[in-house]
Amino acid sequence: MNYDPDKVWPSGLTIGEAEELHRHIIDGTRVFGFIAIVAHILAYVYTPWFG
Amino acid sequence: MNRFSRKAMQSWASLGPRFLPFADVATDDLPLSRLLRLSLFQVSVGMALVLLVGTLNRVMIVELTVPASLVGVMIALPIVFAPFRALIGFRSDVHSSALGWRRVPFIWRGTMLQFGGLAIMPFALLVLGGQGHANSAPVWIGYLGAATAFLLVGAGLHMVQTVGLALATDLAPVEDQPKVVGLMYVMLLAGMIFSALVFGLALENFSPGRLVQVIQASAVATVVLNVLALWKMEARHSRPGAVRGEARAETPEFAASWEKLINGGQAKRRLMVVGLGTLGFGMADVLLEPYGGQVLALSVADTTKLTAILAFGSLLGFAWASRVLGRGFDPLMMAGYGALVGVPGFLAICLAAPLGWPFLFVGGTALIGFGAGLFGHGTLTATMQLAPREQIGLALGTWGAVQATTAGVGIAFGSMMRDIILALPIGSWFGAATPYISVYALEILFLLAALAVIAPLLRGRATPGLSAS
Q1: Which of B133, B136, B212 should one mutate to test binding to chain A, selecting the residue with the greatest count of A CBs within 10 A?
Q2: Are residues B257 and B387 in the same domain?
Q3: Residues B184 and B271 grouped into a single domain
Q4: I need a labelling partner for A38 at 20 to 30 A (CA). Which of B158, B337, B361, B451 fits?
Q5: What is the DSSP string of B177-228?
């Protein structure tokens, strides 16, 4: 494997690549958080728990 | 760092790219196995389409007793996103990524949206139908929930299909593109047929719990299929003329790219052909079965077979078009033949009612399927082959925007026109067939208009060969 000075170990990614992956993970968490909230509200309306 | 973790780290690094979703080298040849794997995204799109337009349509009306007009509005919602396909395609063309990917991030985002929409869909539908405790809740919760679910699925599937087709165009060498288009269409159709059968079987004994299972299973299937399709598919840093790891100094504006695309190579005229032809073929889609049932008095089992015959005709069309276009035949000419075949098909269907020949109807249906197959294949192949290398996403997005919008509008307009003519005093001039025949006549007009628009494009290159590209 040829040596790339921009790469940061242990991940072997450059800073830019790592930041991009991080952004995808944060975006994914936000989207799924929103989806989960909506799903819980709808499920509660359909069959309320602790009711 | 202790000895153990250093060892673990080394073994992690030496695993290398084998277990990572990157294709490091762009290969020139595209083996069939890889192509088949890529086309799995079309299966997930087909599944979502069947779920929206077919299965849930019926479930909402019959099992959940939602008013038909409300169901119609919900199902029409995803079309709102169809025009944005051009924008999505453009964004994927100019996407600057440190990882060197252009298409993968968009397909992944589309997959997430489709998954999210399907995940909340069953609860939204149950609330919309006033099941369980939902009948004591405010009505708008059901409306909002169902609209959100349908919009998410629609946005997701348009995104996945647009960028997926752009990726396929990136990967395939020009001479293979007809083969790729054929495969993409066949897989879309196969995904639709297969998932329609599976959904039908799974929902036979309907219960709310079963609905949740089926729709959420399709959400998981979406993610699995799309990840399989994407894995190691796009080469990194494959942008034409890109500098490795650096974003370009300036990204082109959408408006400027749009101008360039639309004014080059008679693109406007080709898009008009796509729109007119899709309208021509698409308006009758939902009218074939009621026409067979109400006018020709065919049984339900027979009219279901009609849809199968239509699909079979399309399959034949895709196969034949792939074969002929693969030898270098002009794809626009093929699209013209498709429209030309459609005209006698609709004529045969019109004449079936006054002559009382169901056989004519079946034959006409098969011809329409065949013509639609040739037409769809021809226009998509032409779009792929004429797309400038750095504008593939935009070109395919525009094609998809026109195609999906006119298909949706056509279906809605076809059934609306039937209902309106039925209510008018002229509604029974030619017996029960009047509203249907007027829709079919309009479709013939649209096909003839498409032929008129396409004719100047073909002039001067009637012989096989792709001199224009």
Answers
A1: B133
A2: yes
A3: no
A4: B158
A5: HHHHHHHHHHHHHHHHHHHHHHHHHHTSS--HHHHHHHHHHHHHHHHHHHHH
Residue A10 preceded by cis peptide, ω within 30:
yes
Structure tokens at B405: 């919008």
* CA distance to partner chain A, nearest, from residue B18 (Å): 14
Q: What are the pLDDT digits (tens) for B334-381?
A: 999 999 999 999 999 888 887 878 888 889 999 999 999 999 999 999
- What φ, ψ does residue B243 adopt, rounded to 5°? -95, 130
For residue A14, list chain B residues with Cβ-Cβ distance below 8 A: 98, 245
CB contact under 8 A, B124 and A35: no
Examine the domain organization and report whether B260 and B216 are in the same domain.
no
Split into its structural domains, chain B has a count of: 2
Extents of the domains making up chain A: 23-51
Q: How far apart are CA B365 and CA B398, in angstroms?
A: 29
Residue A46 to residue B132, Cβ atoms within 8 A: yes
Per DSSP, what are the bridge partners of residue A7?
A14
To probe the interface with A, which of B10, B12, B123 has the most A CB atoms within 10 Å? B123
Instruction: Give the CATH number for residue B206.
Output: 1.20.1250.20
Rounded mean pLDDT, B250-259: 78
User: Are B228 and B369 part of one and the same domain?
Assistant: no
Buried b (16+ CB within 10 A) or exposed e, B447-469: bbbbbebbeebeeeeeeeebeee
3-state helix, strand, coil in chain B (%, to 5): 80, 0, 20
ipTM for the predicted complex comes to 0.87
Annotated binding site of A for a bacteriochlorophyll: 22, 40
Residue B219 has pLDDT above 50, yes or no: yes
Q: Do A46 and B131 touch (CB under 8 A)?
A: yes
Find, in chain B, the residue whose alpha carbon is nearest to that of A11.
B13
Residues B342 and B221 in one domain: no
Residues 86-105 of B with CB under 8 A from A: 97-99, 105
* Interface mutation target, options A37, A46, A47, A49, chain B, most CBs of B under 10 Å: A46
Q: Decide: helix, strand or coil at residue B235.
A: strand
Q: Is residue B25 part of a domain?
A: no
